[in-house]
Structure formats: structure tokens, C-alpha cells
Specification:
By secondary structure, the chain is an all-alpha fold. It has helices spanning 6-9, 51-68, 74-83, 88-99, 104-117, 123-126, 135-147, 155-163, 167-180, 186-193, 202-218, 224-229, 240-252, 259-265, 278-290, 297-303, 309-322, 328-334, 340-364.
Length: 365
Amino acid sequence: MTRTNAWMLIGAATLSVSLWAAPTLAQSDGADSAPAKAPASGGATEPPMTDVDAAKLREQALELLVTSAVSGTPEVRVNAIEALGIAPARLKQAAPAALADGNVAVRTVAAMAIAKARLCELSAQVEPLLNDPSPLARAAAIFALRRCGANTDPSPLAAILFGDPSPRVRAHAAFILGELGDRSAVAMLRDAARDALPRANPAEVRLLRLQLAEARIKLGDDAAVTEVRASLYPSRPDDLEATALGAQILGQTGDKGAIDQLIFLTARRNEQSQLFPAEIRLAAAGAVAELGNTKGGFIAEEFVTDPAETLRAQAAYVLGQTGKTEHLPTLARLLGDPNGRVRVAAAASVVRITQRLADQRAGMR
């Protein structure tokens, strides 16, 4: 699961409740290098991959992502393009077709990935999106071009933030404002959070508030951290989607002050003595991994064979967040999953883990 399409992958109305009672992150206090108890899949106790096998697996994963970026469902193409941001040379290969894709989400994510990877040689191919029918694609084009030093007018972002009827579109503009790094946008983001949006879906408005807070955190407004932390205390089922998004935001913005509560979410029980839904536990485990505690791989391993492809995909993504090479055998199997979304999530995690390993070894030289 990725941030760009988190709202598509996690729906509060469809969250399933898991009654699994494995050890929690809080109870798993051994050395970080010690593998967790072997899960049903057996992935964590298999012999480690050799460097040659890991390199072959990485190439297989990259080829899968490039192929998936131009084939399959729009959601698969979106996830593949975003995942290729880890490998800019391959993104450069796939991005031109994605920028001209008939699906607006694919065009938008392609421009966002180009911005983050700073593939400025593709700026000329991004420019037509400034006139795209969708505000999502137009905003992404502004982001990509300004990241590449173009004097592109950013004012349409403010117009989207305050004027678009969709909270999701407004959240997209807020995310971009946070990424652009202009601290003068903080006041505007605070004002946007006060907009009541009475005709909008309340659940979507809650998610918008969180992404407005995330943008403010990125721009140095630490007061927004408490707003995101509050989402970790859901009081009703309708709050769960915001809890999952809040966990992701706290992990990606480096809020170590939230780590204890995130760990509790992986195992805390509600008033009916049931564990939180799998999606919440996985999101929390992934956030904890982003914050440096990589012991949560055992939670993801529990769901890599789940009947629900959404959970298998999210579990594969969390394994990548841990950065541990011990999960590569499990991910290798998931590259052959019957569901394209799962295959792409597994491929993205293979690339992420092998890149981290390469970076570590380069630093030792």
C-alpha cells in the first residue's frame, strides 16, 4: 500500500476484524537482528539469499514494475509507476507512456513520481498536463515543473485547496504544498482546515484535515503533530480510515513521539476484546518500521497468504518498510501472486530492500 492511493486501498466500511493473537511489537523485545517466530509461510526462517540471488530478484522485480506500469488495471499501473520512483532510470523508461495514459490517476501519479525523482529531462512531457481536464493532474504538473526549477505559476494550487468541491482533490493540493517546502503556505493550510465543507462526506473531510496537518508538519508547523496523533485514538468504526492514514503520516514525518501508541495499535483490543482490523495493525507496523523499529515483520508475514488481496498487498508493502533481507524469500513468492496489485507491492518492496542493502554496503567502503 502506498500513500498516493491509500484512500483507495483502505475503506473504513469494509475493514475486516482479525482475531489473531500473536506476540506484539511491545512484547518482542529481543535483538533487532533476531528473526521473529516462524510464521505459517515460513519466510522469515528460510536460508538467506546470496548477493547474486538478491540481484536477480531485484532485476525481476524491476522488470515486473516496468511491465505493470503500462498494462493491467489503472490501479496496478498507478502503483507500479509510484513504485518505480525508487529506481529513477526505470521510471524514466515508463513515465512517458504514463503521462499520456487515458486514466487521470495514472497521469497524476506519473507527474508526482517525476517530481519526487527530479527527472527534469521529462519536463517537456509534463507541461501538457498544465492544461489537463483534471485538477489532480494539473496540480501534479505544477509540482513536477516547480521541482525542476521552472517558473510555473503555483496559484492554481491555492484555488484547488479552497475551491474544489472534493476533499480528496483538496488533500492532493495540500500534499503538494507540503512537498514544495514553501513555509509561507502554513497560514493558507491553517485557513483551509477551518473550511467546514458541509456538503462533503464527513469521512473524507477527516482525511483532508489529516493531510492538511501533514503538509503543515513538513513546513515546520509542529503544532499540527498533535492533530495527527489524535487520529490514533479511534472512537467509532468511521474513524478507522483516518487512523490508518494518521499512522502512515506519523511514520513518514518521523514522529518518534508517537511510536508507543503505534505499537499499541498493533495489538490493542477494543471494547469487544477484538484486535484492531488487520489494515490498522499493518499500517501501524509499517509506520513503526519507518521510525526505526523493524521488528514488525512478523505481523506482515501473518497476512501474506490471506484470502484478501488487499491485505496481501499491504503486507508485502510493510515487509519492504522493514528493510530486512530475511523477507526477500517471502516477497519472491509474492511476485507470482495471482493478483497484480500484490505482485506490484511485492516488487516495490524487493527494490526497496535491495536498494537499502546496496546503500549500506556502499557506505562501508
